[in-house]
Amino acid sequence: MATQVKNTNMLSLEMNRTGQGIFPNHIPSDMLVQVGEAKFPLHKLMLVAKSNHIRNLVVESGVPDLGRIDLSDIPGGAEIFEKVARFCYGVNFEITVNNVAALHCAAEYLQMTDDYCDGNLTSRTYGFLAEVTLKSLSGAIIVLKSCEDLLPVAEQLNIVNQCVEVASAKACDEANFPSRSPPNWWTEEPSILHVTFFQKFIDSMKSRSAKAFTIADAITTYAKRSLPDLMRNHSINGIKSPVSNHSSTSIINQRELVESIVALFPIENQQVVFSISFLCCLLRTAIFLETNDNCKKQIEKRISVILDQVTVDDLVALSYTFDGERLCDMESVRRIVTGFVEKEKSVKVFNCGEFKTIPSPAIFRVAKTVDAYLAAIARTAELSVSKFNGIANLMPKNARQVDDDLYRAIDRYLQAHPNLDEIEREKVCSSMDPLKLSIEGRVHSSQNKRLPLQIVLHTLYYDQLEIRSGQSTPIAQSMRLQVQSDVLLAKENEKLRSELFKMKMYISDMQKNQVGATSSKPKKMKKPTLFSSVSKTLGKLNPFRNGSKDTSNIDDGIHHTQLRKRRFSIS
Question: Are strands 31-35 and 68-70 parallel, antiparallel or unpaired?
């Protein structure tokens, strides 16, 4: 802005004239100009010399001494007309980015063009617009802001369109190639605009193929600045209603503002461009201001896409009034969770999977958040059984690995509603599976007097099954180990049996050879040897003939000559 101020001062110096050009004050005025409530006693000659419009008024009036004209329709009002009159009198004044649009519109209104008088006000203001204000994002936005009170003249003179095009082009450049930090500093500039001009700004950015994230940043900043009380905090702890003392007109204006902001959302199905916190704040504001259904559903649809990022506080804030004293709405939460579950199902079908088998990690996170949400609102007096179950049953059964969080919410609800009968308590517990409780949960529920008897019995029965299963498992493992040991022992026995059989055959062959040698020399007795003694000893160890200690009983298919039993001794 330093360069702009310098240029402004230079332009002001060019417009400055010497005191000789100023009409003497001692000459009485001959024309009274009425601008709204303000009156300007001026001189007809000075005005007619610069303004063709005033000249036409004087001529068309048919009164040579016309002494009064009404210029209440002049753009910018009395403040701008005073500067125009200074220009007509040659008195110095300053053109700035804040008043250049109004001065240009007033100059066009008064027909102060160069065709009528050289170096007139129109060319001066247009040159300032082109050379100073439309060279930067800030200058274009400030001029655009000033045009809000100059409609429709500013649009007819193309000032609005020029400012919008320059501002959107500069914003896109800054978004792609930041010139300062933080990178999104530029989003603060258009946030001062009226929503009508902000819509034009966003539409122009879209026409330049701006990224969805870029547009989302601008919308987020604009919403937070335009609705500071509603978007500042969504906690339910002791916040006073931000518009409790406002008129119905103010609420209507804010409602239209929220609907206009939501209508600007970029259509981007594949990307998440808004944060979950911002969407929840905006939805809460839409619920509070009672916007149309389409507006709320658009926000809910975007929340359901990223529901796995939501916190418990976000969901709780959607259900309560701003003071946190009353549960006002649960339908939005129900639609959001339903939309998320349907999305997960469609993703499974698209990937040729089955939703009931392996839920995604996102649905586990959402189920945990929903159970915590139920626990947070369980103590609310106006929460009915049907509403509680309506939220609890939205999640599929396989979305919860354990039902401890849901059990905690049910226990809190039963504690806060002690007057429920047995049937109503069973309805509350119908969404929980007692078999999916952890050991700690089953121990607690088996001693919980608030639970219906049927649930307690289910829990105790499952505990007995667990106990039995826990006792049989070590026995089964011991039996498997015993079988493995028996198999190894049988293999070792079979190996030993085979070795003994080979030894038996070897001994039998040796005995056959010994019998043949004895029959050829009957008269000569062979002296017993060490080997024969060993063979007899091994024969006594024969395990194959019913415990017999004589190897001669082995039937090997060979006919032997029966030898006379002799007594041998080992020397």
Answer: parallel
- Evaluate if residue 80 carries a pLDDT over 80: yes
Q: How far is CA 62 from CA 56, 207, 421, in A?
A: 10, 53, 94
Which residue is associated with the tokens 């929340």? Answer: 303
User: Who has greater pLDDT, 248 or 256?
Assistant: 256
Higher per-residue confidence, 500 vs 122: 122
pLDDT given for residue 161 in this prediction: 96
H/E element holding 70? strand 68-70
CA 163/CA 132 separation, integer angstroms? 12
Comparing C-alpha atoms, which of 190, 197, 123, 90 is closest to residue 154? 197
List alpha helices for 307-451, DSSP H: 312-319, 331-350, 361-377, 385-392, 404-416, 422-429, 439-446
Taking a C-beta distance cutoff of 8 angstroms, is the pair 451, 425 a contact? yes
Which residue is listed with tokens 């060019």?
14
Burial (CB count within 10 angstroms: exposed 0-12, middle 13-18, buried 19+), residue 67? exposed
Structure tokens at 2: 């330093």
Residue 367 CA, distance from chain mean position? 15
Q: What share of the chain is helix, strand, coil (3-state, %, to 5)?
A: 65, 5, 35
Which residue(s) pair with 41 in the sheet? 32
Helix (H, G, I), strand (E, B) or coil at 38: strand
Query: Binning pLDDT at 50, 70 and 90, where does residue 570 land?
Result: very low
Q: How far apart are CA 213 and CA 172, in angstroms?
A: 11
Q: Which of 13-27, 413-427, 433-447, 483-497 has the highest mean pLDDT?
A: 413-427
The token pair that represents 335 in the structure block: 């639609």
C-alpha angle 554-559-565 in degrees, rounded to nearest 5: 70
Give the CA count within 13 Å in the CB-facing half-sphere of 236: 18
Which class for 478: exposed (0-12), middle (13-18), buried (19 or more C-beta within 10 A)?
Answer: exposed
pTM of the predicted structure, to 2 decimals: 0.71
Asked if pLDDT for residue 1 goes beyond 60, the answer is no
506: phi > 0 → left, psi -120 to 50 → alpha, else beta; which?
Answer: alpha
Could you give the CA distance from residue 526 to residue 515 in angstroms, rounded to a whole number? 11
In this structure, are strands 68-70 and 38-42 parallel, antiparallel, or unpaired? unpaired
Residue 31 φ then ψ, to 5°: -145, 135
Enumerate residues 6+ apart whose C-beta is below 8 A from 195. Answer: 226, 256, 257, 260, 261
Phi, psi of 60, deg, nearest 5: -70, -20
Measured distance CA(556)–CA(71) in Å, rounded:
144
Among residues 23, 30, 43, the alpha carbon closest in space to that of 90 is found at 23
CA 275 from centroid of its chain's CA atoms: 5
Q: What is the DSSP letter of 397?
A: G
Q: How do residues 291-305 score in pLDDT, each as one tens digit?
A: 999 999 999 999 999
What's the rounded Cα separation, in Å, for the pair 274 and 314? 15
Radius of gyration of the chain (CA): 50
Decide: 104 and 159 in contact? Cβ < 8 Å: yes
